[in-house]
Specification:
single chain; about 350 residues; TIM Barrel; eight-stranded parallel barrel; three-stranded antiparallel β-sheet; Dihydroorotate_DH_cat; flavoprotein; pyrimidine biosynthesis; Dihydroorotate dehydrogenase (quinone)
């Protein structure tokens, strides 16, 4: 029904407007008695065999929602009813910011992809905290970044502000230095500044009553040499793991006219490179740390490919938009079938 009726209608309108409309629709529908239970009956696969313990956390199933969809933690409870095992909110910054000028999301229909240059638009970390206080048992990751106006030399303070604000309300953290849509942000992926940032966050983590897993989200555009640096940094700072990957600047092999738009590309064409990065990190590190695989998952087979390459968990974003919530159920069913 989604791909035959709903998606064609949605794809007639501006992607960002459709996003807010869909969020409003799900929120309002979820207020009707019986609707949340209906969503769960349609999409949730409740099976103990899907449970997975990764970096000390127990996930109901290994399929999560990637950051960028629920930036402000405004719909994580309702989205969990669609079958996700965990929801990652953000990217959040200390102060609210508008992000980049609109129009800033573009569909590449022929490629099953999106290009976005959102620019960390969000209402600020404190507003998200107020919503997270109403969590109804959803496992939530907090994706954190820096404000656009904060220079890189002061970036660490922005990440610390978000870390401290979210600490009591999220289950794990994701340090986002790999978005291509905040000027100069990716410079923080260089070895020394990245190591300093992660070590500072880890030191702060150690002052807390219970340490929360900290993960690093990396770009798919890193070279093998840079990926080897990432492995060294993870080992040195003892962070919990890596999310591979964010969006790409590459436009190789794309057919759509919108490929000329600047920003990060996500979706089907990213799948191969994302899996390559996962496999490289897993093999070269000798599986020293968990990896969450994201990028180009549009089918159960795509998800299994990530898991077989070395990912412990997977996340959806663009595949969720193109394929609908039935994809989550299909992936979990495929995983169970492989256990038989």
């Amino acid at each position: 029904m989604y791909k035959q009726i709903i998606r064609p209608i949605f794809f007639c309108f501006d992607p960002e407007k459709v996003h807010y409309f869909t969020f409003s629709l799900i929120r309002n529908l979820s207020k009707i008695p019986g609707i949340p239970s209906l969503f769960k009956s349609l999409y949730v696969v409740d099976d103990k065999r899907l449970e997975k313990e990764v970096f000390g956390l127990k996930f109901k199933n290994p399929v999560g929602l990637a950051a960028g969809m629920d930036k402000d933690a405004s719909l994580f409870n309702e989205l969990s009813n669609l079958g996700f095992g965990f929801i990652e909110i953000g990217t959040l910054t200390p102060k609210g910011q508008e992000g980049n000028p609109k129009k800033r999301i573009f569909r590449l229909k022929e490629d099953n992809a999106l290009v976005n240059r959102m620019g960390f638009n969000n209402g600020g970390v404190q507003k998200a905290v107020e919503r997270l206080k109403k969590n109804k048992g959803v496992l939530v990751g907090g994706n954190i970044g820096k404000n656009k106006v904060t220079p890189n030399e002061d970036a660490t303070s922005d990440y610390l502000i978000c870390f401290d604000a979210l600490y009591d309300y999220v289950d794990y953290f994701v340090v986002n230095v790999s978005s291509p849509n905040t000027p100069n942000l990716r410079e923080l992926q260089e070895k020394e500044p990245l190591k300093q940032l992660l070590q500072t966050l880890q030191n702060q983590n150690l002052t807390k009553p219970k340490q929360k897993p900290i993960l690093l989200k990396i770009a798919p555009d890193l070279t093998d040499s840079q990926l080897l640096d990432i492995i060294d940094i993870v080992k040195e700072t003892k962070i919990a793991g890596v999310i591979a990957t964010n969006t790409t600047l590459s436009r190789e092999g794309l057919q759509s006219e919108n490929k000329i738009e600047t920003g990060g590309m996500s979706g089907k064409p990213l799948g191969k490179r994302s899996t390559e990065v996962i496999r490289f990190l897993s093999e070269k590190s000798n599986k020293a740390f968990p990896i969450i695989g994201v990028g180009g998952i549009h089918s159960p087979e795509d998800a299994l490919e990530k898991l077989e390459a070395g990912a412990s968990l997977v996340q959806l974003y663009t595949g969720f938009i193109y394929e609908g919530p039935a994809l989550i159920k299909a992936i979990n069913k495929k995983i169970l079938k492989g256990m038989q």
